[in-house]
UniProtKB/TrEMBL annotation:
Lineage: Bacteria, Pseudomonadati, Acidobacteriota, Terriglobia, Terriglobales
Name of the protein: o-succinylbenzoate synthase
EC numbers for this chain: 4.2.1.113
GO BP annotation list: menaquinone biosynthetic process
Residues of the Mandelate racemase/muconate lactonizing enzyme C-terminal domain: 142-234
InterPro entries named among the record's database cross-references: Enolase-like_C_sf, Enolase-like_N, Enolase_C-like, Mandelate_racemase_C, Mandelate_racemase_N_dom, OSBS/NAAAR
């Protein structure tokens, strides 16, 4: 296929609820969306770079710049066979994986459309439904957190993940476990701890957490191995895994026992599949992380989550937990059993709501 046009847009969407992590509060999203055209078809990609370079070194403005000046020109007018050709096209540009992923994922989506098959199938998906969990941000009060958990457990979500940081940890876990001794519970520190906290973290073993996500430095998986040796609870790696090679090195080192796969963090579906495959080889389960995506990124996460080694509930949840109005139709819904059905129609399996996107677009550029 030849890529005939690439359209960039930034949309601004207020979040239905503020989301607080150890690095700050998000109340609304600025999101770079990509639309590509080829063979008379149109497909979309979502860039998961945040408003600030706090989760990773990328942010929406760097992604915009790199896409416009470096990445889109390398893809435009190229004759390619599919998304797997993108990493080589972008290879000269170091880093900027979230920007690369938005373009590559749009190519995968277009390829699925032109073959008339679901994106999930093109990626190698085998599961018809995916188990869903939720990520619950740091709340203004412990009472508010308890209310949130109550709501999500009642909605059927299969795993509750609590964002944590020093001061919002032991006491909170204690409270939650007292009320819900048996739910599948995990925590995500987003790098808020250091090796000096190992003793404190080891004491969390008593809470029977499914995992502790990225407790130490965002760019480290060496010292995570040191920590993993001192605790029973499994470490799950998020921020530090940039590609399949990192995954292999981390698993050889024993840095963690679970991996969170985020397609944006690793640069696109090709590398996300590579991480999935490495983990599978090590007998390590993966799950699909979330980055407060709109329906476009969410649909892509659903397709990815259908691969066979996605064995734990992911952070892929219903549109209404994030948005008053999503930009796809129908919006993503979760069953009372806490599952999302993987679409079986060609491409992403959800329609783009163009009028809605037009209404919230604040800048655009066509190449
Ligand atoms: O670490 O998983 C993370 C959101 C923004 C940045 C980092 C993370 C998150 C989440 C949100 O946990 C998960 C979701 O989209 O529901
Ligand atoms: Mg995380």
């Amino acid at each position: 296929m030849k890529i005939d046009a690439i359209h960039m847009r930034e949309v601004n969407m207020p979040l239905a609820f503020p989301f607080e992590t150890s690095f700050g509060v998000t109340t609304g999203r600025r999101i770079l969306l990509i639309e590509i055209e080829a063979e008379g078809l149109s497909a979309w990609g979502e860039c998961v770079a945040g408003e600030h370079p706090y989760f990773s070194d990328e942010m929406v403005d760097t992604a915009w710049h790199i896409t416009e000046t470096e990445l889109a020109p390398r893809l435009l007018n190229q004759e390619i066979s599919g998304g797997r050709d993108c990493p080589a096209l972008f290879e000269q540009v170091r880093g900027h994986r979230m920007a690369k992923a938005a373009l590559e994922n749009a190519v995968w989506e277009l390829d699925a459309l032109r073959q008339g098959i679901p994106l999930a199938k093109l990626l190698g998906g085998t599961q018809a439904t995916i188990p869903c969990g939720v990520s619950i941000g740091i709340q203004p009060t412990p009472e508010k957190l308890m209310e949130k958990i109550e709501t999500e457990v009642a909605a059927g979500y299969q795993r509750i993940k609590l964002k944590c940081k020093p001061g919002w940890d032991d006491k909170i876990f204690e409270m939650v476990r007292k009320r819900w001794p048996d739910i599948l519970l995990s925590c995500d520190a987003n790098s808020a701890y250091r090796l000096g906290d190992a003793e404190q973290i080891a004491a969390w073993d008593r809470f029977n957490l499914l995992m502790i996500e990225q407790p130490l430095w965002y760019d480290d998986f060496y010292f995570h191995a040191t920590l993993q040796k001192q605790i029973q609870t499994k470490i799950c790696l998020d921020e530090c895994i940039r590609n399949g090679r990192d995954a292999r090195a981390a698993l050889e080192l024993g840095s963690g026992k679970i991996i969170n796969v985020k397609v944006g963090r690793v640069g696109g579906f090709t590398e996300a599949i590579a991480v999935h495959d490495v983990a599978q080889e090590f007998g390590v389960p993966v799950w699909c992380g979330g980055m407060l995506e709109t329906g476009i990124g969410r649909a892509h996460n659903i397709a990815l989550s259908s691969l066979p080694n996605f064995l734990l509930p992911g952070d892929v949840s219903a549109s209404k937990r994030y948005w008053a109005q999503d930009i796809i139709e129908p919006e993503v819904t979760v069953s009372a059993k806490g599952e999302i059905t993987v679409p079986t129609t060609p491409g992403r399996g959800f329609e783009i709501q163009r009028d809605r996107i037009e209404a919230i677009t604040v800048r655009w550029r066509s190449l």
